[in-house]
Amino acid sequence: MQGLFARHVSTDAFPAPLKANESILSNHELHLANLLVELGQTHLFEKWDPPGTHDAEKHAFFAQVDELNNAYGSGGLAGYIANAKGLLKAAAEGQNPLEGWRPEVPQGVVLEPVTPAYERYETQGLLEVGACGFVLVAGGLGERLGYNGIKVELPTQTITHVSYLELYCRQILTMQGKYAAPGYLVPLAIMVSDDTATKTQELLDKHAYFGLERSQVTLMKQGKVPALTNNNAEIAAASTYVIDGEWASSSGSSSGGGCEECGRTPYPPF
Predict the structure, then answer these.
(1) What is the CATH number of domain 130-262?
(2) Residues in CB range of 213: below 8 A, 6 or more apart
(3) pTM of the complete model
(4) Would you list the domain boundaries of the chain?
(5) What letters, b where the CB count within 10 A reaches 16 and e where it falls short, cover 237-251?
(6) Cα separation of 83 and 251, whole Å?
(7) Are 210 and 204 in contact (CB under 8 A)?
(8) CB distance 227 to 251 below 8 Å
(9) Distance between CA 46 and CA 18 in Å, rounded?
(10) CA–CA gap between residue 163 and residue 200 (Å, rounded)
(11) Closest among 243, 247, 265, 266 to 256, alpha carbons compared
């Protein structure tokens, strides 16, 4: 992104608190500031201190802005704000995004466990499972369950206390041993976030990947987009020098919806 910010930037439109800090900002930071001003985000600078006070936090602020701008693939922050304004406007006007669509019951097969049909389909599926890869969505903590750790560390039952992550790894090992070609390692991709990345890696390291090879496990880190406060798509501030973010893919989908896109940029290996 540095190449995009090579030209001189005018600071004439900067709000007073931001303009007062012009001298401490790099050229790259000034362009990021100008981007925010052009996007109508001047409220983010309203409480900024004069130069010499919290300067490190100001540079960290622009580092966060730069990360958010690079993370959103469809036009950076400008594309994100434009997309958000369009969606917010449509929602305010009561527009139905599915207008003109006709719902239909899809054709399919209803399978009842322990029936001949179920066993026949299962047999066919097991012939392919050894060539599959598996994705585990593990970007959130277990706070809603009254647990402050990562959800994949929770026990699946209270007798052996086998964690969900261990159970998943055991299942993959079993399918790999029975159905995969000799020497083939069935891959496991785990989508993590800032909240869960370190703890997930520590859990894997502590238990030697629960029998899996280190090379067959990939951690993919979810990116963030700025949280918005109103229908004008004003970016929310967690504090004076920190933008409030929410987990999402660059397409704007949250939680597990970003798996496919997240997989294009694996988390740096430890």
Answers:
(1) 3.90.550.10
(2) 185
(3) 0.66
(4) 2-71, 130-262
(5) beeebebebebbbbe
(6) 10
(7) yes
(8) no
(9) 8
(10) 12
(11) 247
Q: Say if CB 213 and CB 186 are below 8 A apart.
A: no
195-245 tens-digit pLDDT: 899 999 999 999 999 999 999 999 998 877 899 999 999 999 999 999 987
**Residue labelled with tokens 């970007």:** 139
* pLDDT 10s digits, 35-87: 999 999 999 999 999 999 999 999 999 999 998 998 887 789 999 999 999 99
**Confidence at residue 58, expressed as pLDDT on a 0 to 100 scale:** 97
C-alpha R_g of the chain: 24
Pairing relationship of beta strands 188-192 and 134-137 according to DSSP bridges: parallel
**Main-chain phi, psi angles of 266, to 5 degrees:** -60, 150
Q: Which residue has the tokens 């004439």?
A: 12
Q: Can you read off the two tokens belonging to residue 251?
A: 């397409």
Rounded distance between C-alpha atoms, residue 234 and residue 248, angstroms:
17
What gap in Å lies between CA 133 and CA 144, rounded to an integer? 29
Q: Tell me the residue type at 16.
A: A
Place of tokens 């917010």: 88
Which pLDDT tens digit goes with each residue over 134-187? 999 988 887 788 888 899 999 999 999 999 999 999 999 999 999 999 999 999
How many Cβ atoms are within 10 Å of 53's Cβ, its own excluded?
10
CA quadruple 57, 61, 66, 72: dihedral positive or negative?
positive
